[in-house]
Amino acid sequence: MNKKIGFIGCGNIGRAILLGLISSQVVSPQQIIAYDIIPDITAGLASQHGIITATSNADLALQADIIFLAVKPDVVNRALHDIADLLNPNQVLVSIAAGISLEAIGAVVGAERKVVRVMPNTPALVREAICSVTPNAQVTAEELEQVNTLIGSIGRYEQVPEYLIHVVTGVGGSAPAFVFILIEAMADAAVAGGLTRKQAY
Fold this sequence. Notes:
- By secondary structure, this protein is of the alpha/beta class.
- Helices cover 44% and strands 18% of the residues.
- The protein has one domain: Rossmann fold (3-Layer(aba) Sandwich).
- The chain contains eight helices and eight strands; from the N terminus they run E-H-E-H-E-H-E-H-E-H-E-E-H-E-H-H.
- It has an eight-stranded mixed β-sheet, with helices on both faces.
- Helix 1 links the parallel strand 1 and strand 2 (32-35).
């Protein structure tokens, strides 16, 4: 894939997707552009992996073909306003912000913009995510396939209509945490019974 991939926000999930792309070799590090409000985060990624850093959301929007919006829901609008006037008709915006609808994104950047909502979960950190993918009507089949290829670098995905994203978030987003707690409790019981922690796990 010869697209430039941008990341606005490099927190846990954004970073997991970015590193998944690099480790799966879907794109080269030189095709990845990142911006985070904490400069040390992107500086570290550039130093360790050779990605390109942007100086602002706007700077990133001027360079990337596919832009991952990987910021917390409470700052999504601010990030969208930063790039709204700079997006071109061929760019694809991929939002992983929970609870922010396609319509809400379109209200800021324009209803004609290409937007895909993706709901990953924390197993993305070990490239075992289960993600939902929901494009708006402006995204072509070829563009959706490109997004799916990128998302496939961190796990598996299913395309779902937007009204089902809340179900995906509840089951896919929360359930792994409950399972982790169960595993931890079982391991604690095994340690109490005499096993080492390593054996229990």
